[in-house]
Specification:
The structure is a homodimer. By secondary structure, chain A is α/β, with parallel strands linked by helices. Helix content of chain A is 40%, strand content 21%.
Chain lengths: 704, 704
């Protein structure tokens, strides 16, 4: 684990391709480093100059002599490989490669980029970029970028896969009065990625909030490891673009990155405590809230307002975003009643009415912040004739600092009349909004994060006994030897059994007699299903017969199935008919898995049956991070199926313990066997005691 | 239908309670009227003054002598009744009652308010308020309010139930450069309501967009009439707050539980073409878009950008909000390829890359606007070294005006660097945003409205034959005579039959023998259900037996039902057992109704069965506005049930014609009989041919 100090707090920094010409990027970089007040040594490198901006200029990195922590490279792409090699030889620790013309331009560029990376590996150098804007640290201070301007000091780190986004946000931040600790432009992420910088910022004492804009995530597994750990201590907020199918196209043409499915990202973020922003403004609203406020203990919000309408809008937002309106103690209510005008509303939202001056705000805000049943406060102010927006701003700041364990936000609804008060609030670390809704949304983000933190438990080791890997391995080898990738019903049911997942075993019958024999063994009534590697939807071709109570029924059904299938699909190879016990009680659920390129096996759970795709009552988890029974139970509880499982309308509750174990065992199965690419256990019938997997579909791929 | 010209364009205006003292509201009102440049005659009224602000002051309204169009009243509440009376006598056409202390303070105030209203009715005066801020019209011009400032001239009318909201928005509008045609503060809405002002603004040639902030709607029926007509010509955008304070309706039916009071508003807005804003900023984003842009023909958006990341974010938003990324013609693609640098992306989003100056923007924007397959364009600009934000702004304005049938918006991502360009865009009627998402959301609003307009068809008269009102009337009278409000199964099924809604008739059997007799008549197999006014969930108490194939089964089932029910609910009065034919094929749907206080009968349609509340696959319509078969078919198509009805996974399609007729007949039934408060037809089984209502629950109330 590296803090990447040689990038953020280097002692000696070289600028390769430094220039005297203000049009050149090599000028802007050197100029930025100098103007940022960087306290270390600066070494411009340019074979054609002796001196730039008062600094001695070196012909090459070797000529410098001193040990270089960081080399910022802005040379033509044709020279970049050689320059990197020289840096390696000179023992440089980290490269910031500004130069563009690599992976983003196509195959030739990719080749060059791979060469760069190979050099870094060979010399044990790390690299930011190529094709990036650079990086900044306001506390060092260091501006090793070609962006215009240097952010105000602050505690937010912003990591961006888009250089333009970073430059835009920087420009915007001056207007909004947002300060930053670090700005990092990832560029092509050839070596160092968002994960490395999340890790580094997590270790940075000056960073309180980590923001990311990413279009893809390079290493799903490490991302989860790093973020799970980092998010325990600092909020990580990510805007992940390329969510739409159209957006994914744009993403690949932009960075050449492979886009993972958005569901896997969504799930990964949730499971490792990363907050996902839905928009750029939400990203920064959340950043401001986290950077200035304590986490709320619970979800109970108090609102103090001088106007009814906006307070109703805010109250709506509180419900919409899943927070609660605080119910004040009798003490608070008495206090408010005794001190506010008769027309005031003393219940939440506290409406101190239009003629409220600062003193009334002060009294009401303090009263609600003192209340034990209030976890956060929102102050709304509309411009009326006697309103005192500046004085009230001072009051809000004072009380926010006095009640420093509770988040306090302000909504100053208006323009010029309120501008001065608004600025005072922002300068004094009170998140301030023009309209109520985004303030409540930010509170929701804080509450969600606080809940996540509260619910982190050390993973209890899950003991899954009676697992027979060898049996599964053999089945898979047999399937592959048969040149198939889809397991037949009896094979899949054998896999279930080998992993202790309760299943109604199905057996292959090649003849009517075999079918009767099996029926006798497993007990009537039975179900018959066609067994063919080419038939996915068995019911649609008449390949399923249920409720067979006698051997005669079994024989007839066997014949009917074979006849119908050979009529509908004369060319489908038929292996026989699967015979399975009939089970028809219990709640139908689905347990499934699809393997994501970035994040590995993605488990699904939800309402099962033939309408599963229609109803879409499902929830997801990454198997790799699904380690506790608690998490599985939480997963189950997120679905509507849970309402049925708990016992809907007088029914007895279903066996959640067995279901939980089945999900954990499924997770183990798909983790143990990476060749399983897709899997549906649908339906699983969950009984009052026990459960039965009825139909299991497993798709595998050949592993080299 | 009144245009309320005496309020917005009065010739003679009186200010009753005009004052010389700048602290008084009566001063602010007079001052505002004068300063707004009002061209008519102004008459201050105050018995203690001879002259105010250079105007002759009158002792009373009678003293003026001239015909007064509008009297703005700001006198103590104790004097207001008398003043109103005097206005009536003097023949004033309209009152604007600023004075507070009426309904909003409780019972005494309400009484005073009713007196005011009675006076208005008596003298045929109309009244805005009481307890309001006043009104403004920038084109008259007239500022008859006590708000600080007067908005810039524009074409947006803003009607607000909250005075503070209006004042806040006014203050904010100066900063944002938003102009208005009218500002109306509704106050307590004793006489004139949002509906009157929507109607008036619809008739106002200076108003292009009508905005409303409301907390409730006074007259649902008139609201729908007025808005259905007005929205054909002008967009109406409403922010309706108080969604959370919606009290849980006493709901004994599925439909009632699904509906909730906000659902009725949501449905009403949708049915009469009103756009609903989710937040204050969305309200004004939409207002700006509609006020400055033409409606898009279809949903195909072109994006021109100088940076990849923000374009991906915008592309995501296009999909999220249900719009489409335009696919350019070959012509356009060739043109872009031949004129843009090799690194540019010539497909949508068009990325003209970071070194793009104004000329490249000009070329690319014009190319996409010329393309027939582009309906709207979004221009993204991030500050890079050579970017020309001001010149590009001029280009955008020029092209927006040249291609005046296509909406063009701008996203200028940044702060000070882009401020001048941004201002130019706003001044020249290009909706301009800092981040992409809200711009796309606004485009979506425009597209939705355009779609609504396109799909308005003159209502075809629906011919429903074979309706027997008398039979239904008799059943209801009998039920009420039996001191019940819930119809028994056989009664409800008779109501269905009387309205030609296909139903499996159920008949009441008081004895086993009667049950056998009925079974013989209607044909076996049958279903038996307990008949008791006290048992809502029959299955839960063992009150239902299905699949009875022989008379012996019927007898046994009869006994079992009576036994079980008397065991579980010994005190429930039992009328007997309902006998009904067994029907088990077809798709299960629900048709239901719950009556909303404001908007009347609210119909529900969706996936039926016992899980209807769990799955919540439902859609709503107000019966009063559901006049065409097309609308019913659209309603059906909005649900997942539709996927099943169309024939899911190889099944034959269900009989949509019969289902459509059943919904129309249900609408007629609940419109004809206002005493029906709630109704569930669940399930209705829709077959390949025909449909059958199986279980019908109707709740009525006694009408005076």
């Amino acid at each position: 684990m590296s803090k990447l100090n040689f990038l953020f707090e280097p002692k000696h920094i070289a600028v390769i391709g430094a220039s005297r010409s203000p049009q050149k990027i090599g000028f802007a970089i050197l100029d930025n480093i100098i103007k940022s007040g960087f306290p270390g040594d600066i070494y411009p490198v340019n074979p054609h100059e002796d001196e730039i901006a008062g600094y001695k200029c070196y012909r090459s990195i070797q000529e410098i002599g001193a040990p270089i922590d960081q080399a910022v490279i802005s040379v033509p792409v044709s020279r970049s490989i050689q320059v990197a090699e020289e840096c390696g030889e000179a023992g440089v620790k980290g490269l910031v490669v500004i130069t563009a013309g690599f992976k983003e331009i196509g195959k030739d560029g990719l080749k060059q980029e791979q060469q760069l990376l190979e050099i870094c590996h060979r010399y044990n150098m790390r690299m930011l970029g190529p094709n990036c804007v650079g990086l900044m640290d306001t506390h060092t201070p260091l501006n090793a970028s070609f962006a215009k301007g240097f952010p105000d000091e602050g505690n937010i780190s912003f990591i961006s896969q888009s250089g333009a986004m970073l430059v835009s946000i920087l420009d915007w931040s001056f207007e909004m009065g947002i300060g930053f600790s670090r700005f990092i432009s990832l560029g092509n992420k050839a070596d160092l990625t968002e994960v490395d910088f999340i890790e580094s910022c997590a270790a940075d004492p000056q960073t309180k909030v980590i923001l990311c804009y990413v279009e893809d995530i390079a290493d799903g597994k490490r991302f989860i490891e790093v973020c799970s750990e980092a998010s325990k201590h600092k909020p990580i907020i990510i805007l992940k673009s390329g969510t739409s199918s159209a957006g994914a196209q744009a993403a690949s043409s932009h960075t050449g990155a492979l886009a993972g499915s958005d569901r896997a990202y969504e799930t990964a973020f949730k499971q490792c405590g990363v907050l996902r922003a839905d928009s750029i403004s939400e990203l920064f609203d959340l950043a401001r809230a986290f950077s200035t406020l304590p986490l709320p203990r619970q979800s109970r919000v108090a609102i103090v307002t001088n106007a009814g309408g906006p307070a109703i809008v805010a109250t709506d937002a509180v419900e919409k975003y899943g927070l609660k309106m605080a119910r004040f103690t009798k003490d608070t209510i008495d206090k408010l009643r005794n001190n506010l005008p008769a027309e005031a509303n003393i219940y939440n939202p506290v409406d101190i009415i239009g003629d409220a001056k600062n003193d009334r705000y002060h009294f009401a805000i303090e009263a609600v912040l003192e209340d034990q049943s209030v976890d956060s406060a929102l102050v709304l102010l509309c411009p009326a004739a006697v309103t005192e927006p500046e004085k009230t701003a001072e009051t809000i700041v004072t009380l926010k600092n006095r009640y420093s364990t509770k988040p306090v936000m302000a909504v100053y609804m208006g323009g010029k009349t309120l501008a001065e008060g608004k600025n005072y609030l922002i300068e004094n670390a009170v998140p301030t909004f023009t309209f109520p809704e985004p303030s409540v949304r930010s509170l929701q983000g804080m509450f969600n994060y606080a809940e996540y933190i509260r619910n982190i438990h050390p993973p209890a080791p899950v003991n899954l006994s009676g697992i027979d890997c060898t049996a599964v391995r053999k089945i898979m080898n047999d399937v592959l030897a048969d040149h198939r990738v889809v397991l037949l019903g009896h094979e899949a049911s054998a896999v279930m059994a080998a992993y202790g997942i309760p299943v109604s075993r199905s057996y292959l019958a090649r003849t009517e007699e075999e079918a009767c024999q099996i029926s006798r063994n497993i007990g009537l009534p039975v179900v018959l299903k066609i067994s063919s590697p080419r038939i996915a939807h068995k019911t649609d071709v008449g390949g399923v017969e249920i409720g067979l109570h006698g051997e005669d029924d079994v024989k007839k059904a066997f014949r009917r199935i074979i006849e119908k299938v050979s009529y509908f699909l004369p060319d489908a190879p038929v292996y026989g008919v699967e015979v399975q016990s009939m089970v028809d009680d219990g709640v139908e659920v689905i347990i499934g898995m699809s393997r994501d390129i970035q994040f590995g096996p993605l488990l699904v759970f939800g309402l099962g049956g033939i309408y599963v795709n229609l109803i879409e009552d499902v929830t997801f988890r990454l198997a790799s991070a699904l380690v506790t029974e608690e998490e599985v139970k939480k997963m189950i509880s997120e679905t509507k199926a849970y309402t049925l499982l708990k016992g809907y309308r007088g029914k007895k509750p279903a066996d959640l313990e067995t279901l939980t174990a089945a999900i954990l065992r499924t997770a183990r199965l798909v983790t143990d066997f990476e060749e399983i690419t897709e899997m549906d256990i649908n339906p699983v019938r969950v009984h009052t005691h026990g459960a039965t997997a009825l139909d299991v579909k497993i798709t595998i791929e050949k592993k080299e």
